[in-house]
Structure formats: C-alpha cells, structure tokens
Design goal:
Blueprint (H helix, E strand, L loop, with lengths): L2 H11 L1 H5 L3 E5 L4 E6 L13 H23 L3 E12 L6 E6 L2 H14 L3 E10 L5 E13 L3
Antiparallel strand pairs: 1-2, 2-4, 3-6, 4-5, 5-6
Helix pairs in contact: 3-4
Length: about 150
C-alpha cells in the first residue's frame, strides 16, 4: 500500500475528497499522514476550511491504516466507523497536515478479532496542524472490525 495507490483510490472511489485536495503523503507500520490545502472548493463562509473536508482527511489517516492491516492479515474483515467526534481549536487555513500514529492499536485489534472471531472496536486519533505546526483540529474515530463469515 503506497501513497500513490491510495491517491488513485481517492480519485476513483472518493472523488469528492480528491477534488477537495485530500492527498496521502506517507503510510508505514505505525502512522499515516494526509494533507489538504485550504482553497476555494473546500472553504466555508468564514474563509477557512470546511469542517467536513478536515474530517475526510482525518478519517483517511485512520482508515488507510485499518485497510493496510486488514490486507496484511489476508482475512476478510469488515470495517466501519461507528462513532466519531472532533475538536476545532484554530481556523484551518493554508496546508493542513493530519497524522494518525495508531497503527499498532489497529494491528492488535485485527489480531484479536481473527483469534477470537468476535468483533472489536478501536479508537483512533488524527491530529491536524497548520504549516506553523499549530494544532487546528483533532478527530477521533471508533472503528469496528469483524471477521466476515464465508
């Protein structure tokens, strides 16, 4: 799983995120980084980035890690966001970078659902910062994971 493949996926399957400028910059075993730049197409009436665009970028940081570990497991596992919440601390202008460092949490949850056959939940956090490294928003996503029956 590479940033290029994930960005192609966005273009094909999530065109609204792609059109708004959401792009994966990096993904590894523990973290995923996604950026989005404030521009006309993703702004709100207050001349900052619309909260839902921030949410798309933030969710992608967590969802990409979930998808990565599901693929690595070789099992058919369903994934769904059950709950989310967000906190906004500063106007989002310029380029916003979202980072999720919860790869190990989702890896452990996937191992547990495979081992037990029971559904698991995992809370993952994505923090958005501006180009001055000032936090603008924090999103939390509760992912549900369950091995699919054949």
């Amino acid at each position: 799983m590479t940033p290029g493949k994930l960005n192609t996926f966005l273009l094909v399957k999530l065109p609204s995120a792609w059109l708004c400028g959401v792009r994966v910059k990096s993904i590894d075993q523990t973290s995923c980084t996604v950026t989005v730049k404030h521009k006309w197409i993703n702004q709100n009436p207050f001349n900052s980035m619309f909260w839902a665009v921030q949410g798309m970028a933030a969710e992608l940081t967590t969802g990409a890690l979930v998808t990565k570990y599901i693929r690595d497991s070789g099992k058919r596992i369903s994934m769904l966001v059950a709950t989310n919440n967000a906190t906004f601390t500063k106007k989002a202008t310029g380029r916003i970078t979202f980072v999720c460092n919860d790869g190990q949490l989702v890896k452990d949850a996937i191992k547990k659902t495979i081992k037990t056959g029971e559904g698991q939940t995992v809370w993952m956090t994505a923090v958005g910062t501006n180009s001055d490294n000032v936090e603008v928003s924090t999103f939390n996503f509760e992912w549900t994971l369950k091995v699919k029956n054949k």
